Protein: S-protein homolog
Amino acid sequence: MGLNGTLCWSTVTSAIIQPDYFGRKVHVFVTNQLGTPLKLICRSKDTTFGDHWLNHQQFFSWKFQTNLWGTTLFWCSMTWKNPQGYFITGSVDVFNFSRDGGGRCMGDCRWFVRQEGVYQINNFNDKVVFMYKW
Structure:
């Protein structure tokens, strides 16, 4: 009985210390490539970074570590004025552990906000991938 308890504890302990499960350091960058100002509000369940106005080619960034449960999620609400004068708004998951935690971000999650939508760099192949349409 003592051996089973020890074996179970050993299995749980080795699963917890794997970097894919928690504690992965991530740095998110959101860059405005609209050619017009972008209002950005980024948050998680526990944290909000407030309102940020980004001019063309400016970026907002922050760092965090993923949680133990593999449920880390950050999203950003974005608002900008298109060339016709209409306000465009949307919300984007900029880090979702189930999508990005397996290495897609590889420490850095880089996002580009453009007039046709929002793009992410896939760090597996350094390609810019269209992710969200307005």
In short: The mean pLDDT is 85. The chain has one domain: 23-133. The chain is about 15% helix and 50% strand.
